[in-house]
Amino acid sequence: MALELAPMNSYRRSEDLRALWPWLPLWTAVALIAMFSHGPMPLYSTRTLAVAWEMWQGHHWLVPHINGEPYSEKVPLLFWLIHAGWFVFGVNDVWPRLLEVFFGGVQLVLVWMLASRLFPNRPWVAKAAPWMSMALAYAFLFGLQIMYEVLLVDCVLGALLCLTPKAQRAEPRWLLFGLLIGAGLLTKGPVMLLHIVFPWLLGPLWNDWAREHRARWYARGALAVLLGLAMLLAWAIPAGFSGGEAYRHRLFFTQTAGRVVKGVQTDQKLQSHPHWIGWYLISLPMLLFPFSAWPRVWVALGTLRRPLDSGLRFALCWLVPSFVVFSVISGKQWYYLLPEFAGWMLLLAGAIAVLRERHDKLATSYWLGSWPLGVGSIVFAVLLFALPALAPGHRLHSEWIEGAAPYSRNFSVMFLLLGGLLLLRGRGEMRRVALAGLVGVLALNTLFTLTLWHKYDLGPTAALLSGAQADRQAVAIVGNYEGQFHFAGRLSQPITELWNGEDIAHFAATHPNGLIITHPDQLDTRALRYALLVQPFRSSWVEVWPATTLADLRAGHVPAEPAQQPTIYPASTGAAYGQQP
Fold it and tell me: Which of 189, 264, 411, 415 could pair with 258 as two cysteines, CB 3.0-4.6 Å apart?
């Protein structure tokens, strides 16, 4: 018997490895190219790296810190994983980016596994779901950020996979379910529960074992949730006492409430991101692109009829209530829904599989195919080709679009070819849509890197601040500081936040050799004469001033002439204003 099982197990492993080909190697290669085409992105990636760096540099292994203060907005699991790599390889930004690529690959594998278990009688869904997941434009681009959500997605999908039945075992793996809930709670906090609670609570609607063993389903599920919460508290209680009373209050009370309910008062500025209740609904077509522009998807959803199989019921039990709850919550960001993107792809792939079985004409009709995406890609290619001719006269009234003009014609060829691919007839339509989506978003990321990345690269400012702190010069910033310079400059001291002219004058008087960073929407032309460094940042500017010089200017005085001209980055900025760097 043992001899018979060994070849069978080897065969299954071989089949599983073949099922990962070619989508997993393809996605990994594209993700690595995109991830390392430019540096960590402000403010998402740079803030995460700043917290990890301050924990590392200050040996704050329990409590996350940012700008010298305990950071109650995040829990520590991602930082610990970054630190694990730094212990082995030293402090760098390569390991955190490789981690994100790894998390993204695990996500696709988990989607494939979920589809295999939820749709055992429709193997096409397991083939399609990872292809469709890897082609989502927004999810791919956000996955390039060193952020918590991709790790959270892995925890959510892993926990939900524990609830799904296997051929050899119908009962969920409750211990692993609880451990993954705990990992998710340590990744993003209590919001983890919102991502997994509805498939569990509504289990009898989609899971036969849950329907037959309701008491055990809910009792053991509740124990698993308690295990996850115990893991969070095992960190939060000692961290709360270590971080002090103010940190403890934010961590246990205002941190979550400030995001859920608009208007909750906090003693510290909170990243709550309030939006109106329908914000997610109107954003859904963009979040699900390119599949939101594929007519066959909508027809497949529209023709679904009861009885639905367990996989479709699972997707609906997950998506509908969670979407409603997240819409009601005041704080909203597109990436808050990232774990549910996998559920949408399971729903869409399952609906198309049903369409292929029950409505052959609709499943093969060219007019329901990918031609709208193909036409859109060709139109986009024409616009890219015309961009260099339109940009010089500033007829587009957009520095972002005009900034892409120098390389746009090269990339127009790529989108013309993708458009032709999407206009093809015949089998493999889903893979053509997925491949075009993946390659198209890589092309846009590359175009951004070549033409607009300099507006996001804060390396010059970070290098200047690093040298200043090495010379024991104090550094301040006018406004809120998001940690964008700390990791790149390996800063060892906090940056003081200044909010008005009195703060600036007091800082200059206290630190006459200090530096002050400003972040104006429009370039202050005096900066081209008196500042130490000027560089563009997104749609605004970063200026670094000698503290006394800025204080004099704000007080209406004429400062002393600087010993040297400011550094202007890039050089073309200074030339445009008649200055030399």
Answer: 264
**517-521 contact pairs (CB < 8 A, 24+):** 517/461, 517/465, 517/475, 517/476, 517/477, 517/478, 517/542, 517/543, 517/544, 517/545, 518/477, 518/478, 518/542, 518/543, 518/545, 518/550, 519/477, 519/478, 519/479, 519/543
Question: Are the C-beta atoms of 75 and 192 separated by less than 8 Å?
Answer: no
CA Rg, the chain, in Å? Answer: 26
pLDDT at 287 (0 to 100): 97
Residue 541, helix vs strand vs coil: strand
- Residue 482 has phi, psi (to 5 degrees) of -105, 15
Q: Could you tell me whether strands 69-70 and 65-66 are parallel, antiparallel, or unpaired per DSSP bridges?
A: antiparallel
Strands 69-70 and 533-537: unpaired
At 392 the pLDDT is 79
For strand 533-537 and strand 540-546, is the pairing parallel, antiparallel, or unpaired?
antiparallel
Average pLDDT over residues 294-299: 97
Decide: 160 and 198 in contact? Cβ < 8 Å.
no
Distance CA 447, CA 410 (A): 9
What tokens does 353 get? 């599989």
pLDDT average, residue stretch 535-560 = 95
Locate 517 and state its tokens. Answer: 């960073």
| C-alpha triplet 343, 347, 349: angle, nearest 5° | 115
Strand order in the sheet with 475-478: 496-498, 475-478, 515-518, 540-546, 533-537, 567-568
Report pTM.
0.93
Burial (Cβ within 10 Å: 0-12, 13-18, ≥19) of residue 299: middle
CB-CB contact of 140 with 438 (8 Å): yes
At 32 the pLDDT is 97
**Rounded-to-integer distance, Cα 23 and Cα 503, Å:** 55
Q: How many residues does the chain have?
A: 581
